Amino acid sequence: MPQNAAVYETVSHVYIVMELVTGGELFDRIVAKDHYSETEAASVFVQMIGAIEYIHRLPPTALLPTFPSLHREVVPLQVIKT
Question: Of the four listed, 1, 13, 42, 48, which is most buried by Cβ atoms within 10 Å?
């Protein structure tokens, strides 16, 4: 977990607060641009997969000592650009 992250727990939820990212959502960039070349789309995809790979390589934490990292829908609406 990044050094500047904070973790807050309740009985039913775990909140991870990280740095402010102001680049906007990937989906909004796709809509605004209207068209991505194959090279541009491949670059974004490689960055997304690299981020997921990084998360999967992180060691277990006190919050999730036995479970691997988990993610659900990896879609443009879920991706925030820096």
Answer: 48
Query: What pTM value is reported for the model?
Result: 0.56
HEC string of 25-74 equals: EHHHHHHHHCCCCHHHHHHHHHHHHHHHHHHHHCCCCCCCCCCCCCCCCC
Ramachandran category for residue 44: left, alpha or beta (phi over 0 → left; psi -120 to 50 → alpha) = alpha
Contact indicator for 60, 1 with CB cutoff of 8 Å: no
Is residue 45 packed enough to be buried (19+ CB in 10 Å), middle (13-18) or exposed (0-12)?
Answer: exposed
Domain ranges of the chain: 22-78
User: Per residue in 18-30, pLDDT tens?
Assistant: 777 777 888 888 8
Give CA–CA dist 72/23, Å, rounded: 22
